[in-house]
Amino acid sequence: MTAVRSLARPLLSASLVASGVNQLRRAEETAEYIAPALKTVEKVAPPQAKGIARDRVLVARVLGGAQVGAGILLGLGKMPRLASAVLITTQAVNTFVEHKQASNTAATKGARTQALLKNVSLLGAVMLATVDTNGRPGLAWRAEHLGEQAKRQAYYMGQDVKFKALGAQNQLAHANLDLTKGAHDLVAKAQKAVSH
Q1: Which of 136, 157, 183 is the last residue in one of the domains?
Q2: pLDDT band at 186 (very low <50, low <70, confident <90, very high)
Q3: What are phi and psi of 46, to 5 degrees?
Q4: φ, ψ for residue 137 (rounded to 5)?
Q5: Do 131 and 193 lie in a common domain?
Q6: Which helix (H) or strand (E) holds 94?
Q7: Range of the domain at 155
C-alpha cells in the first residue's frame, strides 16, 4: 500500500465510522427519518424481507453497524473495494437522513447546505475508493485473463493430444507393416518347408 493510501483511507474512514457510531446511538431518531424510504422498500420487497423492513430501528442499527464495520475495514485497507461499496449505500442513506433531520429555518440553512455538501463529498470519495485497485487488477480483468489462459491451455492440450494421436497412429502403421512383413516371411518359410 502506498503512503498516500495508508494515510487517505484512515482519514476517509474516520468520519464514516464516527457517523455510523452516531447512527447506532440514535437509531430511534434515524428510524423515523428512514420510515418513508422503508415503506417504499416494503412495497417491492419479497414477503420474507417485509418483516425486516417494518422494524425500522433494526434497519437503522444494521445500517449504522454496517457503516462502522465497513469504515474500519476501509481504514485498515482490508477488502477496500467491498468496504467502499457498502459505505456508498450507508453514506447515501445517511446523507438523506441528515438532510431530513436538519431544521429548515433561515438561520440554519447555511449549516444545512454545508452538511449536505460534506456528505455528498464523502460519498464521492467513497465512490473513488471503490474503483481504486491499489495497483492490482480488478475482478473483471482477472476473470477475463483467467478465461484466456484456460482457452490457451485447452488449445495446447488439444495440440498435444493431436500429436500424441498422430504418433500412436504412426506406431500402429509401423507395427502393421512389421506384422504384414513378418506374416509374409512366415508364409514364405512355410511354403519353402512344404516344397522340400
Answers
A1: 136
A2: confident
A3: -65, 160
A4: -65, 155
A5: no
A6: helix 80-101
A7: 137-196
Grid cell in block for residue 50: 417485509
CB-based contacts of 2: which residues, under 8 Å, 6+ apart? 135
Q: pLDDT tens-digit profile of 11-46?
A: 888 888 888 898 888 888 878 877 777 777 777 777
> Same domain for 190 and 127?
no
Return d(Cα 38, Cα 56) in angstroms, integer.
8
Give the phi and the psi of residue 108 in degrees, each rounded to 5: -100, 5
Cβ atoms within 10 A of the Cβ of 132, count? 15
Domain termination residue (choose one: 136, 153, 179): 136
Residues 156 and 94 placed together within one structural domain of the fold: no
Question: 114 and 182 share a domain?
Answer: no
Torsion of the alpha carbons at 158, 163, 167 and 169, rounded to the nearest 10: 60
Structure-block grid coordinates of residue 13: 474512514
Angle at 180 between CA 175 and CA 181, to 5 degrees: 95
| Residue 158, C-alpha cell as written in the block | 488439444
Cα dihedral: 137, 140, 143, 145 (round 10):
-60
Same domain, 121 and 59: yes
Whole-angstrom distance, CA of residue 140 vs CA of residue 133: 12
Residues 6+ apart with CB under 8 A from 91: 16, 19, 67, 119, 122, 123, 126
Question: Is the model's pTM score more than 0.85?
Answer: no
